[in-house]
Amino acid sequence: MAGFRIARSAPLSPEVAWRRLTRWEAHAARVPLTTITVTTPPPVGLGTIFVARTGLGPLAFDDVMRVVVWEPPGRSGGGAAGRCRVEKRGRLVSGRSTIEVAPRDEGCRVAWSGEIRLRALPGVSFPVPAWLARWLYGRIVQGVLER
After folding, report:
1. CA distances from 54 to 29, 61, 111 (A)
2. Looking at the DSSP assignment, which residues form a beta bridge with residue 7?
3. pTM
4. CA atoms of 30 and 39, how far apart (whole Å)
């Protein structure tokens, strides 16, 4: 497994950042050659399944993901941080990632961490997948928070 962690600050309320980060289809604008489809009915939350399809024509693969933890920020009143965990269940890519959104003085702090396994490389751990994951998820976070 290749582990990664990225963190960003944003001048947004935790609730606004959370809504942007968990609008799964919006991530596709930051991932080259990718479309994302939510396959479960609204609203987005625990149990939501979405599929990222990456590639061109027949040279594409599906990255199937399911939300397994859904704790929005500010639940139960108070300034509680939000946390969402997604499991990757695709045939080519597996793993998990966690998004955390916490209040800060002038907005919020977002942390996205996870582990990715490329099934074509079982048992292999090297820096390229970790670097690629940091770059890709950093691009997603930056893009959806800035829009």
Report:
1. 12, 6, 24
2. 111
3. 0.89
4. 20
